[in-house]
Design a protein that fits this description.
The chain is mostly helical. It has one domain: Cytochrome Bc1 Complex, Chain D, domain 2 (Orthogonal Bundle), CATH 1.10.760. The protein is 44% helix and 0% strand. The protein contains 5 helices and no strands. Helix 2 crosses helix 5 and helix 4 crosses helix 5. It is globular and about 35 Å long. The two termini are 25 Å apart.
Length: 126
C-alpha cells in the first residue's frame, strides 16, 4: 500500500471518531480560568514505554521511523491527523473493535490514556 493510501486510511479512521455536532445552546457557561489540559510528562513517558511494548511490532512509534507493517500508520502520522487531541485519540484507542484484526488484544483504559498522551505529544508545528 502506498504511503498516500496509508495516510488517507489513517485520516479516515480518525475522522470516523469525531463526534457529531452538538447544539451548545443549553451548555453551561465556560469556567473563567479554564485551561486546556496538556499531557503530563509522566504520562507521555509511560505512553512511550507502552508503545514500545504494545505497538512497535506494527507501528513506527518515533518520528522519522518507518512502520514495520507498511499498512500501519506511523504515530507521527496519527498525531498530525486533522483535529486530533488527547481525548479523541484516547477514545479511538479504547474502541479496539476499530483496530485491524491482527490486533489480538485490548488496550486497558488507563493505558489508552497514556498512549494517547504520547501519540499527541509527537505533533509538531509544521
Amino acid at each position: 500500500m502506498s504511503r498516500r493510501a496509508t495516510i488517507l486510511e489513517a485520516s479516515l479512521l480518525t475522522a470516523a471518531c469525531v463526534a457529531a455536532p452538538v447544539d451548545h445552546a443549553e451548555d453551561p457557561a465556560p469556567l473563567v480560568n479554564a485551561q486546556p489540559v496538556a499531557p503530563v510528562a509522566g504520562s507521555v513517558e509511560r505512553g512511550r514505554r507502552l508503545a514500545e511494548t504494545l505497538c512497535a511490532g506494527c507501528h513506527a512509534i518515533d518520528p522519522g521511523e518507518v512502520s514495520p507493517n507498511p499498512r500501519a500508520p506511523t504515530f507521527a502520522t496519527l498525531a498530525h491527523a486533522p483535529g486530533i487531541g488527547v481525548a479523541d485519540m484516547t477514545t479511538h484507542l479504547r474502541d479496539t473493535h476499530n483496530m485491524p484484526e491482527a490486533m489480538t488484544f485490548e488496550i486497558a483504559p488507563e493505558d489508552a490514556d497514556e498512549l494517547a498522551a504520547y501519540i499527541v505529544s509527537l505533533k509538531t508545528a509544521d
